[in-house]
Amino acid sequence: MSRLDPVQLEFFHREGYLIVPDLFPPAALEPLRAELTELVHREALRLNAEGRLSRLYEEEPFERRLSRLHAEVGEEILKAITGRGGGGHSGRALFELIIHPALLQAVESFIGPEIVGSSVYRIRPKIPGQVRGVVPWHQDSGYFAPHCDQSLVLTCWIPLVDATVETGCLQVLPRAHRQGVFRHHTHGPGGYLVILDPDLPAQNWLDVPVPTGGCLFLTNCTPHRSLPHHADVVRWSLDARYQSAEVPNNAGQLPEDFDPAIPVLKQACYPPEADFVVQSALHPAKVVRRWEDFDQLRQRYEKLRPPSPQRGWVPAPATP
Ligand SMILES: O=C(O)CCC(=O)C(=O)O
């Protein structure tokens, strides 16, 4: 039973985050780990056949192989996993984890039973020492359209290996999620948006380690970041997002149907990527149940991405 209790929910609403260390049954993450292992293997074979990789590193475990490959061929090995800035990999096991009953029961505790999978989910293989693996302070709402600032877009951050301080877990700034969206700047470290230290409301950040099988829940206004790590472990994780069907979304809409002229309040929180209904008693026919449909939708949005929300963020001032 994964429904959360009132004490957990009260903590989440007060602090802006919640760790549930044992959300998933132990076998639940295995299919996605296997799918990613297979994907990494395919990419290694391709690069090896093209003469760009000296060997396959097949003897290395899931936690290390990608790091060895990355050391030889750089970011190229990550493209099939992370896409071109969008969601990237959209395999069957990923979809099955996104709609896993244990996860959806927990999600329902926060946002009710009519659930839309938010367009923005990411598989993150965080490689030791990798620049793009370090995500500076931000709120997810810094990326979303402002008309969604007051709504809950729930982040479920799910490690596929134990996420500790040594392996690059997240840090959060507790109790800051009720203070609105802070100023972000563009072109932060790794190319991400960044909230600079003087714009943060406090400095009492916390490390939030999460074991495999657990989940970290965040609000879209919770400042969080992910620090560099140098342990010899790829800190694989999935961050999936969900919102109530009442929050603006583009479920059922194809990217070619995006109309910039429709009132902004009716546009999705993040139009470049595909939202999809994952649970609904009111409109069961709208639920995306087949992986093939999810994948097709995802691919369509990867090819033709409606524009990102513009929040007026500007580049960070150059440091002397
Ligand atoms: O997984 C990470 O290292 C960063 C995740 C993150 O910033 C997010 O999910 O918004």
Which keywords apply here?
single chain; alpha+beta; Jelly Rolls; 23% helix; binds 2-oxoglutaric acid
CATH superfamily: q2cbj1_9rhob like domain
Whole-number average pLDDT? Answer: 94
- Overall CATH class: Mainly Beta
Radius of gyration based on Cα positions:
19 Å
Number of strands: 13
Give the name of the CATH architecture.
Sandwich
Domains (count)? 1
Class of secondary structure makeup: alpha+beta
Uncertain regions: pLDDT < 50 for 5+ in a row? none
Helix content: 10-25%
Number of helices: 7
Encode the helix/strand succession as letters: HEHHHHHEEEEEEEEEEEHE
Give the SSE layout.
Blueprint: H1 6-15, E1 17-20, H2 30-49, H3 65-73, H4 79-82, H5 92-98, H6 101-111, E2 115-117, E3 122-126, E4 135-138, E5 153-159, E6 170-172, E7 185-186, E8 206-208, E9 215-218, E10 224-226, E11 235-244, E12 276-279, H7 291-303, E13 314-315
Parallel strand pairs: 7-13
Antiparallel strand pairs: 1-9, 2-11, 2-12, 3-11, 4-10, 5-9, 5-11, 6-8, 6-10
Question: Could you characterize what this model shows?
Answer:
23% of the residues lie in helices and 17% in strands. The protein is an alpha+beta fold and 320 residues long. The chain has one domain (8-254, 263-305): q2cbj1_9rhob like domain (Jelly Rolls). The longest helix is centred in the N-terminal third of the chain and has 20 residues, at 30-49. It is globular. Bound molecules: 2-oxoglutaric acid (AKG). 2-oxoglutaric acid binds next to β3, β5, β10 and β11.
